[in-house]
Structures are given as structure tokens and as C-alpha cells.
Amino acid sequence: MSSDANNLQWQSPSPYGFLIVNIGNLAADFPVGPATDALFTGDATRKQSGELLSYRWLSIDGIKGVEDLEAEKSNKSDPRRLQWRGYRKYKGLVQYVSIMLSSESQNFAKHEDALHAILYSTKIEKE
Fold this sequence. Notes:
CATH architecture: 3-Layer(aba) Sandwich
Strand order of the largest sheet: 1-2-3-7-6-5-4
Helix content: 10-25%
Structural class: alpha+beta
Distance between the termini: 28 Å
Order of helices and strands: EEEHEEEEH
Number of strands: 7
Largest sheet: 7 strands, antiparallel
Shape: globular
CATH topology: Protein Transport Mog1p, Chain A
């Protein structure tokens, strides 16, 4: 669908699945450890409220982050997401990296294995 240095949006053929990658630049001294811990703590609240089915620590290509899986939506056409978020050091900066894979809630089960496979095979360039 579109791409540039810090964003990628990809759509599969119908029934649609999506891959969205966003990268945000932060200061070189950004506190990665506490920020990553805050992602995990925030997901605990989201799971308790029923928004998430699961969340866990997941390292992708050696970068520690948090994977979360949204609960099924009551409106079957709403997107259901599998997401990973973490921070990498790159070109002297810290960058926030978000990898989101999604499909309509009604089609998520059809894509779930492929979405997990895409996430788990991701390579992230780093210093």
C-alpha cells in the first residue's frame, strides 16, 4: 500500500490481512528499559479490561519487546490485531518500533498462523 524510511503498510488479497510497521526516532539517551517495562505493564491493564487475549515478552532478532494479541471483537468487521512493540538502537538514536498484523475479526482465525509466522520471522536491523 505504501512505504518510506519509517513506515510500511501492506495488504494481502481478500480476505484482507494487513502488516503495518512504524518507526519513531527518539533521543539517544531515551530510557529503553523503563519504557519497555511500561509497555508490558500497560498490556497487563489492557488484558484485565478484556481488550487483550494475551501479552508476553518476545525478543525479535535480539530486541526485547512486548507481543500482544487482541481479544475477538463483537463487531466481526472490526480489525483484530497481533502487535509487537520494542525499541532498537540505530544510527546513534533509539527508535520505537511497532509491528502490527491484523485482519477483520471474522477472518482473523484464517490468518492467525500466517500472521504469527510473519512476526516471528521478522528481521530488525540494528547497531
